[in-house]
């Protein structure tokens, strides 16, 4: 069934209205409107340089809009103080990047536990949660290994465990499968699908790959700073 998403839908965890973002004289985003429903997987596609990462970072409050608004659960990100925006990112948003961005000096368990430790969670609880997530994503057998000894798939699954350890509402993933072969990319995408359905996480994925995008509930295609098309997957 095709779903209709209106501006006033309360189920939207993120709403973007008339978002503009410039870098110098370059207008990268030129009026983006978007509703992201809770529990959906949204894929953001488009040519290199089309502003996919910029849109992701604006939605996550890492970059500020030049014009327009981004709302998280109805609250305008522009109304957060710098500190509360940092707190929001630490508690409600999980981030996954193309190369995992793990801390090279720390073993898998500590990488996963780190965001919890930084939030003041006691060591014992942080490591317990890290172990649980390591098992859930399938890296429990490399829990003591350093990142450089991991496969690309293990690195990304560790990054997903680290993002999930804080129990975020939204996961922002920028080309999370960009450095993986198709078998590992499939495993990572299946993990996102499972997280979205079992834990009702909202997942926003920037990707180049049509194969990756098929796992999404909704796809948007960016072109020339605007959403050229938006397609919602129809239920079987
Ligand atoms: P995509 O992720 O679709 O490849 P980006 O959002 O990374 O595209 O970048 C869009 C455009 O904005 C590119 O032309 C890029 O060079 C430019 N850009 C991105 N970030 C910055 C920045 N911090 N400073 C200046 N230009 C930037
Ligand atoms: Mg990018």
UniProtKB/TrEMBL annotation:
<dbReference type="InterPro" id="IPR017911">
    <property type="entry name" value="MacB-like_ATP-bd"/>
</dbReference>
<dbReference type="GO" id="GO:0016740">
    <property type="term" value="F:transferase activity"/>
</dbReference>
<feature type="domain" description="ABC transporter">
    <location>
        <begin position="14"/>
        <end position="236"/>
    </location>
</feature>
<comment type="similarity">
    <text>Belongs to the ABC transporter superfamily.</text>
</comment>
<protein>
    <submittedName>
        <fullName>ABC transporter ATP-binding protein</fullName>
    </submittedName>
</protein>
<keyword id="KW-0813">Transport</keyword>
<keyword id="KW-0067">ATP-binding</keyword>
<dbReference type="InterPro" id="IPR003593">
    <property type="entry name" value="AAA+_ATPase"/>
</dbReference>
<dbReference type="InterPro" id="IPR027417">
    <property type="entry name" value="P-loop_NTPase"/>
</dbReference>
<dbReference type="Pfam" id="PF00005">
    <property type="entry name" value="ABC_tran"/>
</dbReference>
<keyword id="KW-0547">Nucleotide-binding</keyword>
<dbReference type="InterPro" id="IPR003439">
    <property type="entry name" value="ABC_transporter-like_ATP-bd"/>
</dbReference>
<dbReference type="GO" id="GO:0005524">
    <property type="term" value="F:ATP binding"/>
</dbReference>
């Amino acid at each position: 069934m095709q779903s209709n998403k209106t501006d006033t839908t309360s189920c939207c965890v993120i709403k973007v209205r008339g978002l503009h973002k410039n870098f110098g004289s370059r207008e990268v985003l030129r009026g983006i409107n978007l509703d992201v429903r809770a529990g959906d997987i949204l894929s953001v596609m488009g040519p290199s340089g089309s502003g996919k990462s910029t849109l992701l970072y604006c939605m996550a409050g890492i970059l500020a809009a030049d014009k327009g608004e981004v709302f998280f659960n109805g609250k305008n990100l522009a109304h957060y103080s710098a500190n509360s925006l940092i707190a929001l990112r630490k508690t409600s948003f999980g981030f996954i990047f193309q190369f995992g961005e793990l801390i090279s000096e720390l073993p898998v368990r500590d990488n996963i536990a780190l965001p919890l430790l930084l939030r003041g969670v006691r060591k014992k609880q942080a490591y317990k949660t890290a172990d649980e997530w390591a098992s859930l994503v399938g890296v429990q057998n490399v829990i003591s290994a350093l990142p450089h000894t991991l496969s690309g798939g293990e690195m990304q699954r560790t990054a997903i465990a680290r993002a999930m350890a804080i129990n975020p509402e939204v996961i922002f993933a920028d080309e999370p499968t960009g450095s993986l072969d198709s078998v590992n990319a499939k495993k990572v995408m299946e993990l996102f699908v499972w997280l979205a359905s079992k834990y009702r996480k909202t997942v926003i994925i920037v990707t180049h790959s049509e194969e990756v995008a098929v796992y999404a509930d909704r796809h948007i295609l960016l072109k020339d700073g605007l959403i050229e098309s938006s397609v919602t997957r129809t239920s079987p």
